[in-house]
């Protein structure tokens, strides 16, 4: 028997079998819940005011700047462990990093927009001795990789094997 209402710590929910219900809380955060009649289970997923899934442990936040990232995305099972945001242009990289506060930035050398990856890295550094966040370069050319490292990139991922390298990196960091 599917319940009409369910009380959970975040607040009451109105449910119909198989439906999704929202329970808003202050600052537009809330919870999504779904009832599975076949299993007799209620799945409750809290989300924060930005619409991101709230987890007991914070997700690894990665900003990727690459115009050609679509074919390089790791499998969905790996991506479930991270908050991965992809942008084709790094023209606003300093504002993006300040707003999103990522744990890691992956920066391709070749980008859409007016800046190359090297220009974006220099802009992000902004004359400081250290970058505000670790940056890994994405390059297919060893010379570009060396230039990015000289400008402050911590490490480089080869574009040719980016999907595999990024998958291993995410698995190592998230355990």
Q: Structural class of the secondary structure composition?
A: alpha/beta
CATH topology of the largest domain: Rossmann fold
Number of spatially distinct domains: 2
Q: How many separate helices?
A: 5
* Overall morphology: elongated
Helices and strands, in order, run as: EEEEEEHEHEHEHEH
Q: pLDDT average, as an integer? A: 75
The value of Rg in angstroms is 20 Å
Count the beta strands.
Answer: 10
Please name the fourth-level CATH homologous superfamily of the largest domain: Response regulator
Spans of at least 5 consecutive residues whose pLDDT stays below 50 are 1-27
Helix amount, in percent?
10-25%
CATH class of the largest domain: Alpha Beta
Arrangement of strands in the largest sheet: 7-6-8-9-10
Task: Please summarize the sheet with the most strands.
Answer: 5 strands, parallel
Give a structural overview.
With 175 residues, the protein is α/β, with parallel strands linked by helices. It has 2 domains: 5-47; 60-174, Response regulator (Rossmann fold). Helices cover 25% and strands 29% of the residues. It is built from 5 helices and 10 strands, in the order ββββββαβαβαβαβα. It has helices at residues 76-79, 93-100, 117-125, 142-150, 162-174; strands at residues 5-8, 11-14, 20-22, 30-36, 41-47, 60-65, 82-87, 104-108, 135-139, 155-158. The strands form 3 sheets. The protein has a 5-stranded parallel sheet, sandwiched between helices. Strands 3-4-5 form a 3-stranded antiparallel sheet, with no helix packed on it. Strand 8, helix 3 (117-125) and strand 9 form a beta-alpha-beta unit. It is elongated, with a radius of gyration of 20 Å. The protein starts with a strand and ends with a helix. Mean pLDDT is 75; it is low at 1-27.
